[in-house]
Design a protein that fits this description.
Layout: E1 14-15, H1 16-27, E2 41-44, E3 49-50, E4 53-58, H2 61-70, E5 74-79, H3 91-102, E6 106-109, H4 112-115, H5 122-129, E7 136-141, E8 144-155, H6 156-168, E9 175-176, E10 184-191, H7 198-206, E11 211-214, H8 219-227, E12 231-234, H9 237-240, H10 243-256, E13 260-262
Helix pairs in contact: 2-3, 5-10
Length: 269
């Protein structure tokens, strides 16, 4: 990551269209299905060139403000501007767009395309952080496996400790659906973000997954996990989705020599 305040940063000017084309191609933005509010791809344009990039999990007002402070004029996020659907540009939405336009800042959002990416994605990167080697997919959405899965022969207590160590870096609070003392993880799966659901737990049962690592999930998923003796490790929605945008920042630096910074703005979830 190029440090903020690098005097050479303003010498780099890359056409926005080239960056968008590269991201769309690498992430298969047009091919990966997603929920309509995700609106993957370029959400806000700028005047046409990029000198510095900021990456963040959420397109929050804080992220936009911090990106402007760093001098970035491209913000890449996992959760974009339009999750709430159409709304009037008043109050906070107005402030967001006023800051974006004032800083000539473009916004690029990538949700499931980033989750599912085989090398830059949140799921595969989290597996690597935990010392796990994926051998298959998990959490299929329409035509695409969003998560990853694999085999191991490790104490679940050891894995839980690894998750706790990782999550602590990003403000995540970790909990487990069942006690891990004496358990062994043999078949695991990861689905970052809101990865615990009746559907993912059903898939885990069908595939004999004994340990499922997610960001968060509704209360009933813990009940279901206990009833079916599945160890679900909840590591925090935000924490589990920090790795993909950072990987994209590094990828853009390698591809275009663009300086970038990660905006760490934990949400507590």
């Amino acid at each position: 990551m190029t440090p903020q305040g690098d005097e050479t940063s303003d010498l780099v000017h890359v056409p926005l269209r080239d960056i968008v084309a590269a991201l769309d191609g690498e992430l298969r933005t047009a091919e990966i299905p997603d929920y309509p509010p995700a609106m993957n791809g370029l959400q806000v344009a700028n005047r046409g060139s990029v000198r510095r990039v900021a990456v963040a999990v959420d397109a929050s007002r804080a992220a936009i403000t911090e990106a402007a402070i760093t001098g970035a004029n491209l913000l890449i996020v996992h959760h974009g501007l339009f999750w709430g659907g159409a709304q009037p540009l008043t109050g906070v939405p107005y402030e967001k767009f006023r800051t974006l336009f004032g800083a000539d800042m473009a916004v690029y959002s990538t949700h499931l395309p980033l989750d599912a990416h085989p090398t830059l994605g949140n799921n595969v990167r989290l597996a690597q952080e935990l010392g796990l080697e994926p051998s298959g997919g998990f959490a299929r959405y329409k035509t695409v496996d969003i998560g990853v899965s694999g085999e191991a022969n490790i104490p679940s207590e050891w894995l839980l400790t690894r998750v706790q160590t990782f999550a602590a870096q990003y403000g995540g609070t970790v909990r487990s659906s069942v006690a891990v003392d004496g358990r062994t993880t043999r078949r695991w799966a990861i689905c970052t973000g809101g990865g615990a659901s009746s559907e993912t737990l059903r898939e885990a049962r069908e595939r004999d997954i004994d340990t499922l690592i997610v960001g968060e999930g509704p209360h009933h998923t813990t009940v279901e996990a206990v009833e079916h003796d599945i160890c679900v490790i909840y590591a925090g929605h935000y924490a589990t989705e920090t790795l993909g945008v950072q990987a994209l920042g590094a990828w853009l630096e390698n591809r275009f020599a663009l300086p970038w910074s990660f905006l760490h703005l934990p949400t507590g979830s």
